[in-house]
Amino acid sequence: MATADVTPVEGHGLAGQRVVVIGGSAGIGLETARRVRAEGADVLPTGRNVDRLKQAATQLGVDRFAAFDATDPASIERFFKEVPGQVDHVMVTAGRPHYGRLADLSYDELRRTLDEHFVTTVEVARHAPGKVRSGGSLVFMGGTGSRRPALGLVIASTVTAAMPALIANLALELAPIRVNLIAPGFVDTPLSASLLGDELDRRRRQLRDTLPIGRVVGPADVAALAVHLMTNTAITGATFDIDGGQQFVAA
User: Fold this and answer.
1) Residue 21, beta-bridge partner list
2) Is the dihedral of CA 33, 215, 143, 10 positive or negative?
3) Domains and CATH numbers, the chain
4) What is the pLDDT of residues 125-143, one digit of tens each?
5) What is the pLDDT of residues 63-78, one digit of tens each?
6) Contact 179, 137 (CB under 8 A)
7) Across the beta sheet with 132-141, what order do the strands follow?
8) Beta-bridge partner residues of 137
9) Contact 239, 167 (CB under 8 A)
10) Which stretches does DSSP call E strand in 142-200?
11) For the segment 9-52, what is each residue's pLDDT rounded down to a tens digit?
């Protein structure tokens, strides 16, 4: 494999680079975009909701954003064609976990779940060559919370198990573009709040009392890992858990 055209970035951070954050209007995506900006990079946030994107762009101090549905292959293709020039890194945080017993899930719900994870990942990877520079990176999101079999996790656990294999294979196919996966457990985000509702505070207390780190994982923790994966050019095809030790304690 030829590597002469790969530009190492160790020690240089993200200054002067271009980063796309798909799902960058809230939560982990927005926090990563903030950190990327603090590192001196130009960032392009994307998402479905135009109003939230406008607010995010204002917070980030950028004048461009892109609104599209990341589960739609045609929209992803159009986005990559319309982005001018090359980008250095693409992070994908779009999608959400789906829970429920198989008997309670409709076909549309099942299909939407698969689209939000597998289809989005594959389509972003399909259009990265030629747009993401040699030695740049793709960073995707998976999870750890569904590794233990349990009622209601038939789809969530399948996605959790399959994503690392997909990422490892994409790392070989897309080289020298690097491809990595972040696998969080519970992260204290607006999405978590919407999923848990009135149970949010109880879950926070439980995690503070049981996690080895003694606190709840936040978006900044995940953002720091994402930036590391963008800047460390020795890492590809890897899955990095970030759950504060949640896997090792009782649910």
Assistant:
1) 45, 91
2) positive
3) 18-190+218-241 (3.40.50.720)
4) 999 999 999 999 999 999 8
5) 999 999 998 999 999 9
6) yes
7) 66-67, 42-47, 18-22, 87-92, 132-141, 178-184, 239-242
8) 89, 178
9) yes
10) 178-184
11) 444 689 999 999 999 999 999 999 999 999 999 999 999 999 99
